[in-house]
Design a protein that fits this description.
It is a single chain. The protein is an all-alpha fold. It has one domain (2-213). The protein has helices at residues 2-19, 24-36, 38-61, 71-98, 115-124, 127-176, 180-213. The longest helix has 50 residues, at 127-176.
């Protein structure tokens, strides 16, 4: 039971690491919420979440999970995943200290009228999305699989979805009321928490997987 909680927590915190970066998806969700209200921001969030779920389903159906236990992928988890988690944690910690926290958006900004279609387009056309999957997503998904197999992958995905809807849903609700300042302050606090968690996770992953393979 504790392992499942750990897997869901890993997915949740790793998911937060992606959504708290003010990239194209974050900006699109905020823009939709400011321009068209909470429901539009939630639709954009749902579109982004479904793209992530589709990737996990694709990994499962294509049998890619068989490589998760291979020495090469274990090394990938250890070096790439460990260093990426550590680096991302440090970046988030620096951002939480240095940023003043001001979401610079105005009503009417943004290029896609339909929030769901726009959410899909912004997700799949965003290089940062695929970079996150390569450096953070797949290594941490491999850790979940290493712990509990396919059930661990689904638990990890549950954590990811919780982070998406809690974070983007909360931001959508707040910004739809026009309170960008509060959104920014929450962003800084979450960045600090995620930074601490990911920094410790990076050290743990490096120690567990790299030392095991040496």
């Amino acid at each position: 039971m504790l392992t499942m909680v750990e897997v869901i927590t890993l997915g949740f915190m790793v998911g937060l690491s992606g959504v708290t970066f003010p990239g194209p998806v974050f900006i699109f969700v905020v823009q939709q919420s400011l321009s068209h209200g909470f429901k539009s921001g939630l639709l954009a969030t749902t579109a982004h979440a479904l793209v992530g779920v589709a990737i996990v389903i694709l990994v499962t159906l294509t049998g890619i999970t068989t490589i998760f236990s291979s020495p090469g992928f274990q090394l990938y988890i250890g070096f790439i995943g460990g260093f990426a988690l550590l680096a991302l944690g440090i970046v988030l910690l620096r951002n939480s200290v240095s940023q003043k926290g001001d979401i610079q958006l105005r009503r009417g900004e943004g290029g896609y009228r339909h929030p769901f279609i726009g959410g899909v387009i912004v997700s799949v056309s965003n290089p940062q999305f695929f970079l996150w999957w390569a450096l953070i997503g797949f290594p941490s998904l491999g850790i979940a699989y290493d712990l509990l197999g396919l059930i661990g992958m689904y638990g990890w995905t549950t954590g990811i979805l919780l982070s998406l809807f809690l974070w983007y849903g909360g931001i959508s609700f707040i910004t739809s009321r026009g309170n960008r300042y509060l959104s920014s302050q929450i962003l800084l606090v979450v960045s600090l928490i995620c930074g601490l968690f990911l920094t410790m996770s990076g050290v743990y992953v490096l120690a567990k997987y790299v030392l095991k393979l040496l």
